[in-house]
Amino acid sequence: MSPFPSTHSSRRTFLADMGLGCTGMALGAMMAEEGRGATPLESAAHSPARARSVVWIFLSGGYSHLETFDPKPALNKYAGKTFDKTPFENPVNSPLHKKRFRSVAAEEINVRDVYPTIYPMQIGWKKHGQSGIEITDWWPHLSKHADDLCFIRNIWTTDNDHAAENQIHTGRHRLDEQQPSIGAWAHYGLASQNSSLPKFAVLGGPTRSDTRQSIDSYYLGPQHSGVPIAIDPINPLPFGQRMPTQTQAQQIREYQLIHKLNGLSALEYPHDKDLLARIHSYELAYRMQTSVPEAMNFASESLNTSRLYGLDNPVTKLAGERLLAARRLTERGVRFVQVFPSAYGVWDSHQKLKDNHTRLCATIDFPVAGFLKDMKQRGLLEDTVVVFCTEFGRTPGLEVRGGGKDGRDHHPNGFTIWMAGAGLKKGMVHGATDELGYNALGDGHYVTDIHATVLHLLGIDNKRLAIPGRKRLDIDNGKVIQDILA
């Protein structure tokens, strides 16, 4: 039995029964609105929704686009030469370089991203599938799904340091006012599909305290932030379980008292969004005590499914568990699942790129391929958008700071992500970088174009998510990448 009234109408009755009268009814209405998010947006039908959920897979540290999904043979042909010794335009002299490069350090002392000596590819590559998409040999399992994937090879961002991890999720450089994350916008704009689970769940993150922005909601209100969930059926929610010394009846009485006290406070401060969010969070927290542990309990999964995700291999187990949890949350109605399948910054290969990427790709390749296969065979890929991304790429030039001789530095000027699932073309490559993999050609796509496209597939017009008193920049809204839509 829940200690909370089960409907918005009975919640108002509950408040009235507490002696709160007409003001209590107003509070109940406000709580109802806070609880259901932005249902008016969904009922307004900005556009027909092609997807109901998103699984956003983020690899922290910046994988090399050149050794993953945008192989460049010219790097091998001109290895050891400087940019100006090739038949191509020196990419550092391109106006695109300054347009897409914003260093926190003063430009005159910054040397990052402009290393001029070409470093060859550290792995081979092949064309895969009927689509003939080029993928490097570090992805033998994922490459079998090439005809289901949509690669976007002309993504760019502006932060050349790891605050770009926040930027790809919020759309803002760290020197600017921060914005809500993409998951928070999805939470704000969509009604719940399962009132016993969070609309925005986070697995494996945020990776550090300073990457909290990647799941935060800022001025949308704390109720729209991501909820971190641990892969632990016993205690998946820190501080979210009943103490062993407390009976269920005692906890019910405790929650009823908290609810009554919060209701009295809300009468005094009716416009305190934090308080209203807290009231809602107590209700959700109570319901999640049962539903989240069930979702994180893999006991019901078959041995074949466990093997499909690589749970039987210590190399792939961590990523596999988080991706299997993402599938289970998605099929239970969670709107946005943000997955960090590896630790903070591990893809940051300033040195020993070949060693690092050989090891790291092996931890991700098999579980992601298994996740795609599982989602597809269950029919979940038909109404789920999968995004696979990182914060930036790596430099075509050899990084020489600190005596470096076998790595690449951060590179925001052009890199690759891929998407798959509902409403997207399959077996497609959209956009390109130049012959050396330096600049995203043409206008390219700033990171908020990914946001706009994902929200569009969910039926939300990003530009209509207007918040009173908050004026968003045009770049915050992004533009839908129409070419990749099915």
What does this protein look like?
With 486 residues, this protein is of the alpha/beta class. It has 2 domains: 1-35 and 248-295, no CATH class; 49-231 and 300-484, Alkaline Phosphatase, subunit A (3-Layer(aba) Sandwich). Helix content is 33%, strand content 12%. Strands 1, 4, 5, 6, 7, 8, 11, 12 and 13 form a 9-stranded mixed β-sheet that branches. The protein has a two-stranded antiparallel sheet with strand order 2-3. It has a two-stranded antiparallel sheet with strand order 9-10. The two termini are 45 Å apart. The model is unreliable at 4-44 (pLDDT under 50).
Topology, pairings included?
Layout: H1 8-17, H2 21-35, H3 39-44, E1 53-59, H4 73-77, H5 95-99, E2 125-128, E3 133-136, E4 149-156, H6 164-170, H7 182-189, E5 200-203, E6 227-229, H8 248-268, H9 273-295, H10 303-308, H11 317-331, E7 336-339, H12 353-377, E8 384-390, E9 393-394, E10 410-411, E11 415-421, E12 428-430, E13 445-446, H13 447-457, H14 474-477
Parallel strand pairs: 1-7, 1-8, 4-12, 4-13, 5-6, 5-7
Antiparallel strand pairs: 2-3, 4-11, 8-11, 9-10
What is the average of the pLDDT values? 86
Helix content: 25-40%
Derived from helix and strand composition plus strand pairing, the structural class reads: alpha/beta
Taking the sheet with the most strands, its summary is: 9 strands, mixed
Could you say which overall geometry the principal axes of the C-alpha atoms support?
Answer: globular
**Number of strand segments:** 13
Count up the helices. 14
Low-confidence stretches: 4-44
User: Nearest-angstrom radius of gyration?
Assistant: 24 Å
The CATH superfamily name of the largest domain is Alkaline Phosphatase, subunit A
Distance between the termini: 45 Å
Q: Mind telling me which CATH architecture of the largest domain this is?
A: 3-Layer(aba) Sandwich
CATH topology of the largest domain: Alkaline Phosphatase, subunit A
- CATH class of the largest domain equals Alpha Beta
